[in-house]
Amino acid sequence: MKKFKIVQLPFYYKGWTDETIDISKLATLDQHSGDTAFYDISDENIKCYGILSDTTNFYSLIYFRIGDAPVPVLATYSKKGKMLDNQDLLCYGCGSDFGLEYCSYTAQIKKTLDIYIADTSVYSGQNDSLDLDNVKKSDSTFINYKTGKIELNGKISIGQLQSVKKENSE
Known about the structure:
Layout: E1 5-7, E2 11-15, E3 46-52, E4 59-65, E5 71-77, E6 83-88, E7 100-109, E8 114-127, E9 134-150, E10 156-158, E11 162-169
Parallel strand pairs: 1-3
Antiparallel strand pairs: 2-7, 3-4, 4-5, 5-6, 7-8, 8-9, 9-10, 9-11
């Protein structure tokens, strides 16, 4: 637990563009230490970030799973170390796609323990169904989001994915 700093709420992270969290400087979990009391270390690409400040009945940890891009994960544990729940704090994340001009993903945990997760993608064009030809020039913004809450028993309740598309044709 010492590798996790206290995180005051609200917690806010904006992937791909957030320079307030230097992932490279975060501690890595160690299989040969007490780290395994709170995390089954089958994945060595875990970076410790923080423990939420309001943890009266359970611990709420935020860590990053490292891959092509860091994925923030929220995990709750009982005071005895039993995992209660875990949830990736993103919808789809960012990747490469035809016409993709901008992409970010956002995670927010409010003081009320409400959760908001969103991905935003901006495209400068669209392909036909076979990805063979740029059939239409457009400026489209896609926002995919989920809302939820950390419940009083430590469970993480996340709703269904919602999507919004805004298209501004040239």
